[in-house]
Amino acid sequence: MIADSFGRIHDYLRISLTDNCNFRCFYCMPEEEYDFTPASRLMQTDEIIKLAEVFVANGVKKIRLTGGEPLVRKDAAQIIAALGKLPVELVITTNGTRIAEMLPVLKEAGIKTINISLDTLQPEKFFMITRRDVFHQVRSNIELLLQHKIKVKVNMVVMKGLNDNEINDFISWTKHNPIQIRFIEFMPFSGNKWTSNKMFSLDEILSVVEKDFTVLPVKGEPHDTAKSFMIPGHEGSFAIISTMTNPFCDTCNRMRLTADGKLKNCLFSDSETDLLTALRKNEDVLPLIQSAIWSKKKALGGQLVSDFEKIDATTIQNRSMITIGG
């Protein structure tokens, strides 16, 4: 069992397979020229498996693979197959571009839920955000997952003046499709030029939805990061991840392992624990894991204040989103 000093049990591990990505989304990747981590500094296939086994042996029940874009890694299929044999729930967050070619591997590994990052339903705006002309490919792959009875959650980062006018378009998408839309408050990370006036809050999102739809709250699970809702007559549902205005820190059970083998005890933490170097020296990594989680701050990595309008993103000591994995 892995616990922090506040009694929170950590049984959910997010593993970033790579900081590389075939998209160039501005809110995730720094605007300046970005140098991806060289292969020698990344966790190798066997190292990912070994570290995952340590976490699972100590109570981890769920593993999420993230990136960058996890499916662009050349050995992604091998990693997914190996992790699929562990006694955990295995899920993936992806931009959806490589779903078709990876589908047999995903199904064989027993993956039942996939999160797709999609911030707009407009092809032109999609290109503006991602700098890639693959909107229809992503939509097609979402349909493919639904055809194969794999649960789809669509992650949409809501940004004022960019895509907040599409909130109800996403809601309408759930009318005849069993998907969950997850509206995410825009969060500050290194290089993403976050400001409070770009953020669209939980209350603002609900206000927009309630103008056109009847919204009913849905009781969530104990460690949910999102507040869930349903709309009568819709096959799908929606949820809101309100990290900035209503964080879920009190029930957080998450740990993050970066692609270069550093353990982050919080998405917003400015500290990291190097597990990869210890593993390569054949040292016991469990004490490092336990110490890192025990030192976790009570809320928001100890860096952010509860009043998001007072946050100065330029003072935050952290990685860019692409190197953390969300």
UniProtKB/TrEMBL annotation:
GO terms for molecular function: 4 iron, 4 sulfur cluster binding; cyclic pyranopterin monophosphate synthase activity; GTP 3',8'-cyclase activity; GTP binding; metal ion binding; S-adenosyl-L-methionine binding. Residues 5-224 form the Radical SAM core domain. Its EC number is 4.1.99.22. Pathway: Cofactor biosynthesis; molybdopterin biosynthesis. One of its GO terms (biological process) is Mo-molybdopterin cofactor biosynthetic process. [4Fe-4S] cluster 2 binds at residues 249, 252, 266. Keywords: 4Fe-4S, GTP-binding, Iron, Iron-sulfur, Lyase, Metal-binding, Molybdenum cofactor biosynthesis, Nucleotide-binding, S-adenosyl-L-methionine. Monomer and homodimer. This is GTP 3',8-cyclase. It comes from Pedobacter kyonggii. The lineage of its organism: Bacteria, Pseudomonadati, Bacteroidota, Sphingobacteriia, Sphingobacteriales.
